[in-house]
Amino acid sequence: MLLLSDGTVLAKSFSGGSDGIGNIYDRLTPDIHGSYANGTWSTISAMIDTRLYYSSQVLMDGRLYVAGGEYGSGGTKAEVYDPLTDTWTATPNIYIYMSDANSEILPDGRVLQALVGAASSHATIIYDPVANNWNFGPTAYGSHNESSWVKLADSSILFVDIHSTNS
Prior knowledge:
167 residues, four-stranded antiparallel β-sheet, mainly beta, 14 strands, single chain
């Protein structure tokens, strides 16, 4: 579930698509008193790809970024949802597996995206939502596969690699 900047909540479902993974989000809009319990559920436009276990970020301008997916058709792809127009826009395809990798918003609004794959498990890329393009990011010391990121108060990112054998 994701809380958008307009106060609505998006919840990914297994509906839509043809693979049982789904490409539909349901939206919960609070009532006029701000109550979610008395709010209204609706369905937004379908994502381009199906995804399960994927990166997601609410961008600084209120749009929603989703990327990868351990299951579904979106493993190497990302897309951005605009709640004002109810449309999804594909980012340029990077043809590198993102799978269930982590992502975080950088202080300037770009998205740091981890990659997961045999040749790229230590790599990151950076998505610029204004230019709708990708650039190479820093290389990590460990594998992003099944790892965890935590954004700290100073905007640095703590990366925990469960596969590391270094001590």
